[in-house]
Amino acid sequence: MMYQASLSLLMGLASLTYAQSCGGGGSFTVNNVSENFGSVTLQPRSAYTYHQGNAQICIVNRAPNTVVTISGTQVNGAISAVLNKCCTNAGSCHGGQQKITGPNGNVIDLSVQGDGQNCTA
Hints:
Elements: H1 2-16, E1 21-22, E2 40-42, E3 46-52, E4 55-61, E5 68-70, H2 72-86, E6 96-101, E7 107-114
Antiparallel strand pairs: 1-6, 2-5, 3-4, 4-7, 6-7
């Protein structure tokens, strides 16, 4: 039991070591972005783009051999973190990136960006 608690704490701390960054994602209207995702499963070296008005959410798994499932809570939390840090103007934003640590330790890249921006693995 102690081992599980220590492992959970370690995984939580590991996910905090990744800092989000802002910019480089075109321009979009913040009100177009919603945080209502369920879990997302990504195949190895794959990217998924979810269009929302003139914005898009880009989620990328760069791992060469691992299928990764991340929870809706993780996805929505990453979107919220980007919007809260990078989008101080409610009308327009240039986006940002956030790392999500999957349950197996793989790191998933999530970007909130303007529609039509590059989203590849």
